[in-house]
Structure formats: structure tokens, C-alpha cells
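Continuing the batch. This is chain 6 of the set; chains 1 through 5 are on the previous pages. Same settings as before, nothing changed between runs. Recording input and output for traceability.
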Amino acid sequence: MRRKRRYVPDSDENHDRWLVSYADLVTLLFAFFVVMYAISQVNEGKYRVLSASLNSAFAAKDGVQLIELPTVAAPRSALQVELEQLRQARAAQKEKERRERAQRTMTELTEALSALTREGQATVTDGALGITVDLDATFLFGRGQTVLEPAARDIITAIAGVLLYTDYPLVIEGHTDSLQPAPGALSNWAISALRAAAVTQVFEEQGVIPARLTAAGLADQRPIAGNDSEEGRAKNRRVSIRIETYSNDRAALNGKPANTPVEVPEGALGSSFPKL
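Output for chain 6:
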């Protein structure tokens, strides 16, 4: 019968080996707390910069501002390019024809009024609003009168013949000097308005479409010379016929209206204003 072995403890066994593991644990804990302490320290300078940036962003009155990125235009097809070129060519041709018509109209008016122009009783000018014909009111009307002289009717009829087959809007303006009429007589407003209406009526009688006509009495509010001399006052007493050759070309007017409406003050026409 075999005998049981008896366990004999090893006399070389180290009972303090657990201290190695404990020391490793303590070292790891120490390193962990050092790291935690390091990251818990706030950089005061960086904190202030961050705080100021956040306050500036959230305190803005306009709120969040979106940054607009540049848009890239979609490439145009060959057909679109061709249509645009065609449109520009047609616009250029239309503008050329308009200028030629306006120049032809001005030439015809200058020829029709050549005799009056030589005598200083008429002028034909081309301005921002079109062609303007200024006629001496002394030649057209008697002093203080609103009925056209017979010779003046012939001149207005000749002008109407030139403008009859055009489609330009026509503005007829009556002007006076600054001298005030005698008490009880027609005011300058009334005289200028009635003279403009008399010329307008001749245009209508000659077949000019009424929708093209505008009559305006401007009294002494649009002088072309000083009213301190007889010569200047004579220039201011006139009837202007404006042919608005640029009426359909708003760019040429630089945003200005083709017709400038004039408000007649209440009572300016007087009680003796005659009916047409």
C-alpha cells in the first residue's frame, strides 16, 4: 500500500509580492489624478477671449448673419446667346430708325420756319426731351390777346402739316413775362393757358390726333431770359411746341417725366375767364 505524500511548503516563497501590484496601482492612481488636475486648470486668457467672442455673437441685434456665396451663372445655350444677340440688334436698329425720324422731323420744321428763324421770331432746338419750337408770342397774338393772328394760323398750320404723320406726343406751352396785367384783366396764368389752347386747337383742326396733344399754361414760371429788360421780356413771351421724340426712350430722359404738370393756383384765372 502506497503512502500519501505530505505537502511541504516552499521555504523560498515571497509573501510580499502583493506590494508590487499595490505600488503599480498607486502609481496609476497618482498619474490619473495628476492628469485630471492638469486639465481642470482653466487658461484665464483663453477663457476671456472665448467669452468675449460668444457675447459678441449672441448680443448682435441682427442675429445670425448668413454669408452669401457668389452664385455661378448657369451657362447659356447657343440658342439663348443667339436670341440675345438678335434682340440687341433689333433694339439698335430701332434706335437708329428713331434717330433718323427725329432728324428728318427737325429738318422739315427748320425748313418750314426758315423765314421766321431768320427774323428771330422762331427757333428750333433739339434737347433732352425732344425737339422744341419756340414762337414769338408777339407775332402770334396781339398784346394781352389770346386769339391767333391770321398769319400766325398759317404758321401753326404749316407746323401741323409736318407733324401730322408722326406719332410723337406734342406739348404746347404758353409763356408770359413777369409784368402783371392791369386790374380786372386776365392773369398771366389765364393768358398763357388760353394761348396754348388756341394753338392746340389749330393742331386738332388740321387732323392731329387729340390724344397726342397736351396744352399747358406756365405764365412766367419758365423764363428763358431776364425780365429786367424789354428784350428779355420779349423772349419770354412765347409759345413752345415740344415734340417728344424721346417719349418712348425712358433712358434718354434720365428718369425725368416727359411732361411736367403745372398746378394753377386757385383764383389765378380770375372771374373773367372766358369759355372756349
